[in-house]
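User: Look at the shape:
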Amino acid sequence: MREQELIVYRTFQDGELLADMAWLMAHYEEAGRGEALAAGRICTVEAVRALFYDCIHRLIELAGTYGFHGNLWHCYLANLLVNDENSYSCGCEIRGGIEGTINEAVLHDIVIFKEFYDYDFDPICERLHVPEFALIEAYESSSLESKVYNTRICARICELAENFCRDSTPEEMKDTLTRFYQEYGVGKFGLHKSFRIVHGAAQGTKGVSWKQGTGQNTCSGMRIEPILNIAHVNLDDLVGCELQKKKLRDNTEAFVSGRKANNCLLFGDAGTGKSSCIKAIANEYYHRGLRIIEVYKHQFQDLNEVISQIKNRNYKFIIFMDDLSFEDFEIEYKYLKAVIEGGLEKKPENVLIYATSNRRHLIRENYGDKNEDGHLPDIRQDMHTSDTVQEKLSLVYRFGVTIYFGAPDKKQFQGIVKALADRYGIRRPPEELLLEANKWELSHGGLSGRTAQQFIDYILGDAELE
């Protein structure tokens, strides 16, 4: 086989399996014919059969890791193509086909991949007496979740593998792949909604590692890795914050549509839906190319590196900072200020910052910032203390949109409880339900949407026990 002739698609993760399968296709007929070696490998029947069985083993392991089903060889090939971040795939992500000579080089590679797809394994199985290969041609996966992809992504890759089989020409196969790039993207940014920053050596599952290059920085040890299980909450699921949802949705809609948009600060009382709104935004706008990267306060020094890795991609990125606040002795906010606005390098058009906080002004202020000795300051002292106050307030001023989430009153809280009860099919007399809800909130954090959800979860769990 001609895997060494690939031009654009050459550096794959899990590419060793492709090389071994290609060697088997090229040399299985030589097994046992007296040749001791073939292309540097022992070519006895026993050795070649052992390699074939090892390839079958690895395909089944990949099925367990990725959740693949059907023809595992085809799924493996499709997974290589959807994860390879190269000049063509990154150019096509979200936007679709691109022009230029690169198309000829890609078509050359797809011709080779179609040979892999169309390859008839029957002669190999007969020659080496390995009937077990039939197991991976119609594989039924277990009900366990994928360690790498959620069910939705896994299904789409398996579907892509099936679509490739229906393509009768390399040109059709190339068009199918390009449409996938346009609809879902490529690599980890294409296949996942949300990400986190990780330091140190990769700790992934066996056989799982992300291609180094556009997705990670090997020098600093900082990587952007997918969050595999994000809560499947939608904005319509959140009750009691309609005005806040509209303001957030309008800003995000402008952002993903390529119009001017602002950094957002969601602030207010605990348990009122601030973080849930961000998760819902990630779910609602994923199909339009929106991705969320969660960054913690101690990672702010990595912000410039994060932006350098994502600024040239075709996706829209929201850098999400949850529960953001600073004590007066913490200086990490200075990194954030420089990134949002004020550094020499302009913030990329495809990056916004969304933050949630229980504090309106983010940085704790002391009376000492205004008057250290408790007496009226002199003019010079007042000038300097004013600078201190402005330094601390300047961070919040860099969020163009601020959205307040207030705790509901008793009537609003009861409305949230009733709406959630209807959604989950709880059939209890309203008076009884609200009386229990009032008792619950008194001992479980007070009036908030979170408390209402916790109460409904309690009711549902209690009903299951019955």
Notes: The longest strand covers residues 351-357.
